[in-house]
Amino acid sequence: MKVSDLPGRHSLFWKLACLLVAFCLLMIWLSWSWGRYMEQRNQFLSDEARGTLTRYAAEAEQVWRQGGRKGVDGWLQGMELRERAWVGVINGNLQSLSSDPLSAQEIQRLTFLRGLDWPIHKKGRPWLRVPFPTEPSAGSLVVELPERFVPGKYRVFWRVITNGVIPGLFTLLLCVGLYRLLVVPLNNLREQANAWRADQLNVRLSGGITRRPDELGELARAFDSMSERLQSTVALQQQLLRDLSHELRTPLSRLRVASDGEQDLLSLRERIGREVDGMQRLVEDTLQLAWLETERSPLPDEAIQVQALWEMLTDDACYESGWPTLQLHCSVDSSCWVRGNLNTLAQALENILRNAIRHSPPHGIVRLDGRRAGGYWHLWLEDEGGGVAEEDLERIFSPFTRLDGSRPGDGGFGLGLSIARNAVQRQGGTLWAENGQAGLRVNLRLVADDSAADSDALAGKPAPTLDMSLPRIV
Phi, psi at residue 435, to the nearest 5°? Predict the structure, then answer.
């Protein structure tokens, strides 16, 4: 068995093991201590019995010293009324100190006398010898143990308590501990699952379960994470449906106006074509955003040179926008290599570039720059469009968000930056915006690839190629 296969430090295994070990040790201690206590009660005289018999011996010694045999005779007559048991007073030679001599049967019984501290094993009422307290050699009290002093009267009852009730109570406590340790968290998980079934996705588990360091705590945190993800996914889908339906109303209204108008057939066909193309791009962009929001499977990654990727993207951007290449500056050198999925990163960077071109003046400059920051590359793309209000820097990454009047521009559905952020996050990076000196600066933080940056290892490495089937999102 490997060390890695052993349970972790906070594993539920150790809690269960400690609980069971503690239960076993407690039962062993209970069996030993309670067994000794019950042995004392069932086999030895009680303190009350010893005190009474010792007091009787003191009385016998006193009457012997004060009245001799007559005094002992009178005391024995009184003892017949006090105890329903044979009582005698003898000297050290086992001879009676009263006027009545001992019978042969009584003399025989004197050879089997017991002390007060001896165990009472046999059934019946044994004879006990209690020496005089002051002068034991002068004589002793011999008494048949009274019935009320016989130990073990409730032996069966105490055996039931010892072997049945007490182990049952401790086993019940063990079950309560196991219930609180295992069943209560499982019941909470079941309640959360039932809440999901009732479409209550906002229900969360209590902190007492999610803060547990064992397997049930991990399961509870996974449940809460799954619940949050389900809730965000459902909310996103509902929001996308509302936004999509809202965005589709405008082209549909224009189509209705065009169909009811008196345009010629060629103009009507051109209008229908433009509106259908726009609606198709809107639907495709919305579906892709929904896929990026919900898909969590890892993307295949590779080493990407940002400079080469920028050159490919700027060629298409200059062709579509009519901007000359001199207006798109790249200050990132060839040592900038990042780790990610080429097509997804290209799509994200292209959306950011197109957004910068759209909101920049005709003769503006769009710059890409970056620096190394630990195990990441910090890249930023800045335009000259005047920037946005500080409170809108985060809102521009929300789907279907267009800041009318804050930045001049036309066209687009407000999905490009939202798709770009999701694409970057899926590759372990981050994307945020801030206002630069002349316009909006969009920052990217991407995982660096040091092995690919080695010039010797990259000798003869072909330039990356993009999947040209990627949709162009605006």
Answer: -85, 130
> Closest Cα to residue 23, out of 172, 160, 180, 179?
172
pLDDT at 474 over 50: no
pLDDT surpasses 50 at 329: yes
Contact 392, 406 (CB under 8 A): yes
Distance CA 200, CA 216 (A): 22
HSE on the CB side for 32, CA within 13 Å? Answer: 6
Structure tokens at 212: 């547990």
Instruction: Give the integer Cα–Cα distance in Å for 80 and 143.
Output: 11
Q: Provide the whole-model pTM.
A: 0.47
Distance, CA of 152 to CA of 41 (rounded, Å): 7
Answer whether residue 257 shows pLDDT above 50. yes
Listed in order, the ranges of the chain carrying CATH 3.30.450.170 are: 45-149
Instruction: Supply the DSSP symbol for 298.
Output: P
Q: Side chain identity at 150, as an amino acid letter?
A: V
Q: What is the DSSP letter of 116?
A: T
Longest Cα separation, the chain = 153
Which residue type is seen at 114? R
How many other C-beta atoms can be found within 10 angstroms of the C-beta atom of residue 303?
19
How far is CA 30 from each of CA 22, 282, 340, rounded to the nearest angstrom?
12, 76, 65
Q: How far is CA 186 from the centre of its chain?
A: 12
Domain 302-453 has CATH 3.30.565.10: yes
Average pLDDT over residues 139-148: 88
Q: What pLDDT, on the 0 to 100 scale, is given for residue 293?
A: 60
Closest by alpha carbon to 293, among 241, 345, 216, 234? 234
Q: How far apart are CA 349 and CA 326, in angstroms?
A: 18
The band of 464, judged by pLDDT with boundaries at 50, 70 and 90, is low
Q: Of 437, 448, 330, which is closest to residue 385 (Cα–Cα)?
A: 437
Task: Tally Cβ neighbours within 10 Å of residue 444.
Answer: 25
Q: What is the dihedral of CA 467, 462, 377, 291, to 10 degrees?
A: 20
Distance CA(342)–CA(351), nearest Å, equals: 14
What integer pLDDT is reported at residue 469 of this predicted model? 41
CATH numeric code, 45-149: 3.30.450.170
d(CA 472, CA 275): 17
Question: What does the alpha-carbon distance between residue 201 and residue 186 come to, in Å, rounded to a whole number?
Answer: 18
CA neighbor of 188 nearest in space, from 211, 207, 206 = 206
Residue ranges of the chain assigned to CATH 3.30.565.10: 302-453
Helix (H) or strand (E) holding 30: helix 12-43
